[in-house]
Amino acid sequence: MQLHLLGTAGYHPNSRRHTACFMLPEIGVVLDAGTGFYRVRDLVQTETLDIFLSHAHLDHVFGLSFLFDTVYEKPVREVRVHGEAAKLAAVRQYLLADELFPAALPCSYLPLSGPLELPGGGRLTYFPLVHPGGSVGYRLDWPGHSLAYVTDTTAADATYVKHLAGVELLLHECNFVDGMEEWAVRTGHSCLTPVAQVARAAHVGRLILVHVNPLDELAEPLDISSVRHIFPRVEIGQDGQVVEF
């Protein structure tokens, strides 16, 4: 299966990266709808599109406002937006308020209420994360392969490790370099070393760092060589990257 990284920055886009969006085109699943969501259009392969929101902060939901163009002249017959009930309500009340966006989007809104079946015999589960306003992480499992997505949380307080146990591919936010722990706690984000420790503790197969600081426009804004002794199979995600898992 292929995972397309469409937005790997946090907070705001820069010349190299858009904000959070990841897609599994073969099954029509999108994880978060940041500004990178406009790239979904070129990858649509299915008649349905399921968008799973981690939370309702703008760098994760603003791309929903691109939905008309995303499905224009595409064979999509149904779009479903999934998330916690309060987060979906906030998106509809504020982002899609008539004064800001006066047309109803061509989608339905489905509050998370338990595990969901995925095409190919897969299963999606979710778990709470500590972040201002609340967030959730996702795990997607199929026979023989698995993926987890954890964004907007502080890895130093990783009570969610058990939900990642043995996952083949882990996408985990890493907004800050080591040494910025005070800012990480204040904003509900992660520094590099604790994320590597989470990957090691969960015995994951591969770690890709996402939601990196947009103020640093280098291809590698984090010194991952400093944590390879903790977790060797670590890399920094790039917009446009396609990951086989």
Widest beta sheet: strand line-up: 6-5-4-3-2-1-14
Helicity level, as a percent range? 10-25%
Count of helical stretches: 5
Number of strands: 14
CATH architecture: 4-Layer Sandwich
Strand content: 25-35%
Describe this structure in words.
The chain is of the alpha/beta class. It has helices at residues 58-61, 67-71, 85-95, 181-187, 192-202, and strands at residues 2-7, 21-24, 29-31, 48-52, 78-83, 108-111, 116-118, 122-129, 135-142, 145-150, 169-173, 206-210, 234-236, 242-244. Strands 6-5-4-3-2-1-14 form a seven-stranded mixed sheet. A seven-stranded mixed sheet has the order 7-8-9-10-11-12-13, covered by helices on one side. The longest helix has 11 residues, at 85-95. The protein is globular.
SSE diagram, text form:
Elements: E1 2-7, E2 21-24, E3 29-31, E4 48-52, H1 58-61, H2 67-71, E5 78-83, H3 85-95, E6 108-111, E7 116-118, E8 122-129, E9 135-142, E10 145-150, E11 169-173, H4 181-187, H5 192-202, E12 206-210, E13 234-236, E14 242-244
Parallel strand pairs: 3-4, 4-5, 5-6, 10-11, 11-12, 12-13
Antiparallel strand pairs: 1-2, 1-14, 2-3, 7-8, 8-9, 9-10
